[in-house]
Amino acid sequence: MRPVLFYVFILIFLGISCKTPKTSAEGSNNTSSSTSAVQGIVGDVTETIGNQMPMVGAPAPTPRPFKTTVYIYDSTHISKVKQIGSSPLFSMVNTRLVQKLDTNEVGHFSAALPAGTYSVFVLKGGAFFANQFDEKNNIGLCRVEVGKQTRIQISVNTDASY
Predict the structure, then answer these.
(1) CA spacing 20 to 30 A to 155: which of 49, 51, 56, 130?
(2) Element at 6 (helix H, strand E)
(3) Taking the model in full, what pTM does it have?
(4) CATH code for the domain of 44
(5) CA of 154: how far to CAs of 64, 107, 120, 122, in Å?
(6) Domain containing residue 93
(7) What domain count does the chain have?
(8) How confident is the model over 63-117, as pLDDT tens digits?
C-alpha cells in the first residue's frame, strides 16, 4: 500500500510542477508581462501619501499603486543629475537613457535588459524621482545578472510625512 501511495504522490507532484503558468493579458502596450522578460527588471511602483506615523488603534496606512513612467538609465552618480533642492526629485539626468516604459494600472512594469548596472527613476509631477542611494552616491541602482530578473519596489513618498 505504501509504495502505491508513494507513486501516486510523485505523479501528483510532477503533474503540478509541470503545469504551464498562465500569463495575464493585463497591462499597457508598453509594459510586457513579467513572464516574458527572461532577463531584466520587474517591479512595482507605489505612492505613499499623508501622515505615516503609527497611531494606537488605527490601521497602518497602505501604499497605493502609482501609474507613471519608468526611466532606466546607465548607472548614475549624484554628480550627473540636477537635483531639486534637497528632495529626491531631479530635473535632469545626464547619463544615457537605456529604456523608458509605462507602468500598468496597478503600478507594475517589466523591462528586458542586458546584464549590467542601471539607475531607475520614475516620473513624479514632471520631475525624475529616486530615493535610494548606495555608499558612493549612485542613485536608484539596480543590478541585472545574466538570465535573471531583478525585482524592485519603488515607493514614491514625496507627499508623505513621517
Answers:
(1) 56
(2) helix 2-17
(3) 0.73
(4) 2.60.40.1120
(5) 12, 9, 9, 8
(6) 24-161
(7) 1
(8) 899 999 999 999 999 999 999 999 999 999 999 999 999 999 999 999 999 999 9
